[in-house]
Design the sequence.
């Protein structure tokens, strides 16, 4: 029959054959049935094939990235793994006048570059009415789960995937807190800030002095020495050293009164990355240095259990920050 189709009936399904070069053509209900089946198969293939390929890619990339996170690579997470952080997950409203900040010390090449690991993570809570300040050193090696990542990571790596916004979101979700402000300083800026203050005086043990190479008669640590101190992963004070250092820095910075505090803020701000507004800074300076009678100050470390958060971590932190029972559901 050449190019002319030869048709026959098979039940109610019409099937036509156009020759070897044309193949089968379905007509009637048979054609509609096969079209629906093919459409379903194509839809499933379109949905499942990318997932299968992406799952394999995730597996390969994740092994590579976890190795990079443990290396000295200053940018361990590639661009396509960066996570977009939406609105922060916040706990109930804070008591009036309380301002919470997340203080981050990173190994980023620059303070404003949100790629580095957070070697130091401190939760700072200031009652701007009473002038009280509380510091909690967080266990940066504790594991957390983050939406969009195929496995748990250490808290210190959250900053690598989404900068300070992801770090705040992760801390809020882990501890049921309400943190929306941050200050980030990288190691080079950290050294510069301490040198601008003229060094910092700390009480060191003989063992710490020996490990750090600090002379027995040295009264103050310069920026480089202070950085070695806060990064020291030895002894029982691993999580205590960051808050001990920051407490000493704050006390020295605030000893000059309100004029000294504003002068220090002006000189330090270019070295840090923060979302604090001018109004926030004014409130903090007046709260901490604007009164002849300084407010209360306390600094402690969240008692982590190895690489895990303690079971009562959220209640413990909220109790320290807001008083026993406050804001606890």
Sequence:
């Amino acid at each position: 029959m050449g190019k002319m189709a030869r048709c026959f009936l098979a039940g109610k399904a019409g099937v036509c054959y156009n020759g070897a070069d044309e193949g089968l053509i379905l007509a009637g209900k048979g054609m509609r049935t096969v079209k629906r089946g093919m459409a379903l198969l194509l839809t499933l293939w379109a949905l499942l094939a990318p997932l299968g390929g992406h799952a394999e890619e995730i597996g390969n990339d994740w092994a590579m990235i976890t190795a990079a996170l443990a290396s000295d690579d200053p940018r361990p997470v590639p661009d396509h793994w960066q996570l977009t952080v939406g609105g922060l997950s916040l706990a109930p409203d804070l008591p009036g006048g309380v301002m919470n900040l997340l203080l981050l010390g990173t190994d980023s090449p620059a303070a404003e570059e949100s790629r580095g690991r957070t070697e130091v993570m401190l939760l700072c809570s200031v009652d701007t009415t009473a002038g009280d300040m509380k510091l909690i050193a967080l266990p940066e090696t504790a594991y957390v789960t983050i939406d969009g990542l195929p496995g748990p990571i250490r808290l210190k790596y959250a900053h690598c995937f989404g900068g300070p916004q992801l770090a705040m979101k992760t801390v809020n979700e882990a501890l049921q807190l309400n943190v929306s402000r941050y200050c980030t300083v990288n190691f080079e800026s950290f050294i510069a800030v301490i040198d601008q203050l003229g060094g910092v005086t700390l009480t060191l043990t003989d063992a710490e002095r020996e490990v750090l190479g600090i002379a027995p008669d040295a009264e103050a640590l310069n920026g480089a020495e202070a950085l070695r101190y806060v990064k020291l992963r030895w002894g029982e004070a691993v999580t205590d050293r960051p808050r001990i250092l920051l407490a000493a820095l704050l006390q020295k910075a605030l000893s000059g009164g309100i004029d000294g505090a504003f002068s220090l803020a002006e000189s330090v701000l270019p070295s840090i990355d923060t979302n604090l507004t001018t109004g926030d800074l004014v409130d903090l300076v007046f709260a901490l240095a604007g009164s002849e009678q300084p407010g209360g100050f306390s600094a402690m470390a969240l008692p982590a259990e190895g690489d895990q958060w303690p079971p009562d971590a959220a209640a413990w932190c909220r109790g320290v920050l807001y008083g026993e029972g406050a804001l606890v559901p």
Summary: The chain has two domains: 6-69, 88-322. The chain has nine helices and eleven strands. Confidence is low (pLDDT under 50) at residues 1-57, 325-329.
